[in-house]
Amino acid sequence: MSIESLVHKIIEDARKVSSQIEQKALGEVKTCEDMAEREVQVILDTARERAVRSLAGRKQRMISIAELEDRKETLYMKQRLIEEAFSGAMKKILSFDGDAYGAFLSRLILQANPEGDEEIILNQRDRDRFGGNVWIKGLNQNLLENKKKGKMRVADETRSIQGGAILRRGRKEINCSLESVIKSKRNELETIVAGILFEDSE
User: What whole-number distance in Å separates Cα of residue 33 and Cα of residue 39?
Assistant: First the structure.
C-alpha cells in the first residue's frame, strides 16, 4: 500500500470515528434535553400544586377571618341591643307617674325583706315626691301586714341614684337602687331578653 493510500485510509477512518462520536454526542444531548424537560415539567407541576394548595389555604383563612369578624359584629350588635333593652326598661320605670312609681318602689323595698324600721334613702327627685306621709304610711301598713315592724321613715339624706332606694338600719345598708337591682338581675334576665330579641334571627 502506498503512502497516499495509507494516509487516505487513516483520514477515512478518522472521519468515521468522528461521525460516530458526533452521533453519540447528539444522542446524549437529546437524552439530556429530554431529561431536563421532564425535570422542568416535574418542577412546574410541583410549583403549580403548591400554588393551588397555598391559594386554597389562603382562601380558607380569608373565609375563616371573615366568618370570625361576622360573628364578632353579630355579638357586638346583640350586646348593644340587649344593653338598649335594659336601658329602655330603666327609662320606662323612671317615667312612671307618681302612683305607679310609688307602688313599684314599695314592691322593691318589700322584696328586700327589711326588718321594718329602716330609714329609706332616696334621690332628691323621689324624696320630693314621697317624703310626705301618704306613701310611707301605705308602705308601713304593708310591712305590718307582712308581720314586720312597720316603722320605716324617709331619711333627710339623699343619694345620687337614678331610682329605687337604699335602706339603712344603723350601720348596715341594703342597696335597692334601680341600678343595683337591674345589675343583680342582669345575668338571670339576659338570656330571657336575648331570647325575646333574637328568637327569629338564628
Answer: 10
Can you give the residue range of the structural domain that contains 193? 97-198
Q: Cα–Cα distance between 118 and 166 in angstroms, integer? A: 9
C-alpha cell at 183: 345589675
Give the pLDDT of residue 38: 65
Q: What is the pTM of this model?
A: 0.58
Confidence category of residue 10, pLDDT binned at 50, 70, 90: low
Number of domains in the chain: 2
Percent pLDDT > 90 in the chain is 25
Q: Is the Cα dihedral 9, 13, 18, 20 positive or negative? A: positive
Phi, psi of 96 (to 5 degrees): -60, 150
The verdict on 76 and 110 lying in the same domain is no
> Both 90 and 101 in a single domain?
no
Tens of pLDDT along 108-151?
999 888 999 999 999 999 998 887 778 899 999 999 998 889 99
How far apart, in Å, do the first and last CA atoms of the chain sit? 108
Question: Dihedral, CA atoms, 53, 59, 61, 65, nearest 10 degrees?
Answer: 180
Q: In 3-state terms, what secondary structure has residue 9?
A: helix
Residue 105: exposure state from Cβ atoms within 10 A (0-12, 13-18, ≥19): buried
